[in-house]
Amino acid sequence: MRVEYINPFVESAYNILKEMLKCDVKRGELYLKSTAMPVLGVAAIVGLAGDVEGRVLFDMKRDTAIRVASAMLEAMEMEPITTLNDMGRATINELANMITGQAVTKLHELGFKFDLTPPALLSGENMEISDTGVEALIVPMEVPQGRIEINVAIRERA
């Protein structure tokens, strides 16, 4: 996986999280994962197709998702949440949309052409994501609300 694909997602996640949560964001050490991996509990997934194919997954524990969504809603002067209700799920999907949209804009400026699927939110216990033949790069981000892992699995179309 080329670094040109990854950096826009890392930069966008850092910038959007910092702006939306109004807090410091600490990026952890990047690592590769090539086998099926467990999902932390709540994952927004966005598919990519075109010059490159794959997906980006925004993965977090359920309590982190609730705290992140609640902080984003409060920042928009809306009512905070205490459970992962419809508003909370929509807010996490919008976070995934904003990060992915900004990253894809940067990639388009670099000459890469591809389309996105709308984010889908998965939640539950003991789920795994398995990408046949695509190595995933995990970018951990620490915010006061918890840990969010940006999981990027992209390859050039053959």
Quick summary of this structure?
The chain has 158 residues and is α+β, with helices and mostly antiparallel strands. It is 36% helix and 34% strand.
Describe this structure as you would to a colleague.
The chain is α+β, with helices and mostly antiparallel strands. The protein has a single domain (3-156), classed as Chemotaxis protein chec (3-Layer(aba) Sandwich). It is built from three helices and ten strands. It has helices at residues 3-21, 62-75, 86-109; strands spanning 26-27, 31-33, 37-38, 42-50, 52-60, 114-116, 120-123, 128-129, 136-143, 146-156. Strands 1, 2, 4, 5, 6, 7, 9 and 10 form an eight-stranded antiparallel sheet that branches. Strands 3-8 form a two-stranded antiparallel sheet. Strand 9 and strand 10 form a beta hairpin. Helix 1 (3-21) crosses helix 3 and helix 2 (62-75) packs across helix 3. The protein starts with a helix and ends with a strand.
Largest sheet: 8 strands, antiparallel
How many structural units, i.e. domains?
1
Radius of gyration computed on alpha carbons: 15 Å
Structural class by secondary-structure content:
alpha+beta
Shape: globular
Query: CATH topology, what is it called?
Result: Chemotaxis protein chec
What average pLDDT do the residues reach? 89
CATH architecture: 3-Layer(aba) Sandwich
Reading off the top of the CATH hierarchy, the class is best stated as Alpha Beta
Name of the CATH homologous superfamily? CheC-like
Number of helices: 3
- Poorly predicted sequence stretches spanning 5 or more consecutive residues: none
Q: Strand-and-helix sequence, N→C?
A: HEEEEEHHEEEEE
Helix content: 25-40%
Task: Report the β-strand fraction as a percent range.
Answer: 25-35%
Amino- and carboxy-terminal Cα gap = 13 Å
